[in-house]
Amino acid sequence: MSDVVLTISGMTCGGCVNSVTRVLQSTPGVQQASVTLVPSEARVSYDAAATNSEQLAQAVAEAGFTVTATRSPGA
Ligand SMILES: [Cu+2]
Description:
Blueprint: E1 2-9, H1 14-25, E2 30-36, E3 41-46, H2 53-62, E4 66-71
Antiparallel strand pairs: 1-3, 1-4, 2-3
The protein binds copper (II) ion.
């Protein structure tokens, strides 16, 4: 399992957090998605054989938000 932290712009409330959580958790290959408003980030555990950070960013974009950076957890 791989982990990535996505920095997200455009989230303004708990509804946005729920939207991003839902779209990430419904992305094939995602095991777990934990989204926070402060900081505006999503920590995602995923199967690297099934998806990648670019596809996760695309899913977030389709929900109306923007991934501005990706990094490894702890970095
Ligand atoms: Cu909102």
